[in-house]
Write a structure and sequence with these properties.
- The protein is an alpha/beta fold and 247 residues long.
- It folds into two domains: 148 residues, Rossmann fold, CATH 3.40.50.300; 73 residues, no CATH class.
- The protein has eight helices and ten strands.
- The strands form two sheets. It has a six-stranded mixed β-sheet, sandwiched between helices.
- Helix 3 packs across helix 4, helix 4 packs across helix 5 and helix 5 packs parallel to helix 6.
- The chain is globular and about 55 Å long.
Length: 247
Amino acid sequence: MNAIEIKNLTKIYVKKRLIRSKKFLAVDNLNLEIVQGEVFGILGPNGSGKTTTIKLLLGLLFPTRGDCFVFGEKVPSLLAASKIGYLPEIPYLYKYLTAREILHLYGSVSHINDQILEKRIEEVLELVKLRAEKDTRLGEFSKGMLQRVGVAQALLHKPKLLILDEPFSGLDPIGLKDMREIILQLNAEGDTIFFSSHIISDAEKICDRVAIIYKGRLLRIINVKEIEHGKLEDIFISEINKADAGK
């Protein structure tokens, strides 16, 4: 079974002006299939439609046309949502709480049983390498540590699919390495990982396949194992240039 199916997905934003409205095509007839158990990245410059695609997949936005399915369940639905763990590009975390407290808050909101939750908090903190800092306030955390807390909260309910929006953005080399290792460990345990990024080198290191999107359109899907190491950036730039030349 596919973890994700995106069929003819289109999103048009309508910006209302005083005299007339202006339409903006954010996602243009996108079709994707993500196989259960793979690491799949969508790559594109800023403004290419990556975040809009993710929000449509999560049911946070409604498409103008087309459909999204998560493990066969049409989005939006509570069943589909229950199978997804989500890390936004900028996770909103209360800086005055400790790592353990923020995870307990999110777990309570998700109606996870208290006894199960306490054990699960320890498990996810261990996985993201923050168990020693569990009683440290988030205001003292680095950007990389906050990202790891964000991943931890996304994993509390043991989702089958983890969706990450720009998980590498703003991280230093140590933070990048930690995030890559977390994603690969989760994938080794059977989880499907779907993430957006404009950092091509990190996507190349961990992805099974990547999709290049630009101005809302799918340009190409690449099996990373079938290309020479280090060539993904050249392919990416070439595809963007060809798309611009074809205007």
